[in-house]
Design a protein that fits this description.
Arc Repressor Mutant, subunit A, alpha+beta, two-stranded parallel ribbon, about 50% helix, elongated, single chain
Length: about 140
């Protein structure tokens, strides 16, 4: 540990994604969008929660489905524009969020080991309720 780190609160920021054929396969934005669709049953509400337009959310969802090669959401019959995740969508979202959590835990532990005890996650710097949880169910 350095003397510098003792007086500084460090924030850990990570951004990664998985690619397939040089295109984004899955990243945190797509995984969280899927989780929000599951939570609300609505692409429009998921987009609103993530502070993006419906069109941007639709494009992100369609790009993810194209990359994966399988549907990630399906309409709920008899309930208008309601959606639910397909088993593949649910599995990929939860697996990615678990990977994100595991990588953050490792990186935070390593950063604390190298730079001191005052290392926090980027999400911890926001007021409660401002960022979606990264932990899967």
């Amino acid at each position: 540990m350095t003397d510098f780190a003792q007086d500084v609160s460090l924030t850990l920021r990570l951004h990664f994604w998985l690619e397939k054929d040089q295109k984004i396969f899955l990243g945190i934005g797509r995984a969280l969008l899927l989780e929000k669709i599951e939570e609300h049953g609505s692409l429009r509400q998921a987009a609103t929660d993530m502070k993006m337009s419906y069109r941007a959310a639709w494009g992100k969802l369609k790009a993810a489905e194209e990359s994966v090669g399988r549907p990630l959401v399906q309409k709920v019959k008899g309930r208008g524009q309601r959606y639910e995740l397909t088993p593949v969508g649910r599995q990929l979202s939860r697996q990615f969020l678990q990977l994100q959590e595991d990588i953050e835990t490792f990186a935070r532990t390593k950063a604390q080991e190298l730079f001191g005890e005052k290392v926090q996650y980027y999400a911890e710097t926001y007021p409660e309720g401002k960022t979606p949880p990264l932990k899967p169910e």
